[in-house]
Amino acid sequence: MNLSLPEDVLDQIALEQAHLEAAPQAFFEAWKRGAQIAGHEWFGDGTRDGLQRATTKWDLRPNMLMLNDALGVLSSGQRMFLSAMASFYNSREGGALLKRCGFEGLSDFGGLDLERRKVIADLTLHYTGW
Description:
The protein has helices at residues 7-38, 48-53, 64-70, 76-89, 91-100, 114-126. The chain is mostly helical. Helix 1 packs across helix 6. The longest helix has 32 residues, at 7-38. The N and C termini lie far apart (42 Å).
């Protein structure tokens, strides 16, 4: 009995495997772009040099305490973007930040500029867990 899979299924499996292999680096690159856009002070050790030296997402963990404290004084776009990024790091705390921003659904990201929307899209596409 032949139990081979159809070629299109095998092609899809190969495509998924290739994506999963590349995803961690692609996520990090999107994360670093987001940190550059939002500002180095929110990530890692909070320094520009720390942002430049970062080689993994762990080097650029968001400063959740600082974000939580500063949320009320940031622009609405900055609040939404930082909260969305934080939600990849910690879904519970990031979700609470998004609620405080008035986030009701993915369409709310339409209020972000193209550069920030691309970062969120790339993070979503390449997320494999923190």
